[in-house]
Phosphatase (Rodentibacter heidelbergensis), 223 residues
Amino acid sequence: MLQAIIFDMDGVIVDTEFLEYRLQEQFIESIKEHDRILTPLERSEVVGKGLSEIPEIVKKLSASSLPLEEIKQRYIDFFNQLFATVDYPSIFRKDIQKIIDFARQHHIKLAVASSSRLEHIRTILTKCGIIQHFDFIVSGEQFERSKPDPTIYRYTLEKLGVQPQNTVAIEDSFFGIQAAKSAGISVIAYEEKRMHIDQSQADDCGKDMNEILTIIQKLHHSS
């Protein structure tokens, strides 16, 4: 039986991954110092990465001569300004409540393990009215390396007191899927076809929270 479900946040609980992807694209264009059009594969390099790693990727893709620290500060300012206006409840995958209800009925622990800043995670979960349902919330900023490094998942397993074979992760990004798999956790991918994301390493894939719930129910009752 399942003991825990660990959710990524951006692109899973809220449809922010694609929003961030488009904004990251705008930011790169704003500091780009070459005329080449970036490929979809290159633009997807930032998807699922933590703040500690994104500025370096942005610098590489833009070929900007700006110092790395200045790019990081500009990036933070850019996103803080834009995300301050986002209506998170409007992009909230509300059917996650059905998974939460199933987990509570079957005494399955719930966690969020996201590469986003902890304050950002807590703000979104609070605005969507679900923060109280999670037994543990952790941010990639708390570790030296974020996803695809598996540390964030191993730490979450330890804090929840569960084994990887009794846990499932819900992820959307290539790096997130890699991180969970490297920690020995089965992964259900939240299907994403608007960006160039390789989800082939996931064990299952669902088009929405209802499909993911069906997969979770099967995993729980078959294990």
Observations:
- Strands lie at 4-7, 109-114, 136-139, 167-171, 186-190, 204-206.
- The chain has nine helices and six strands.
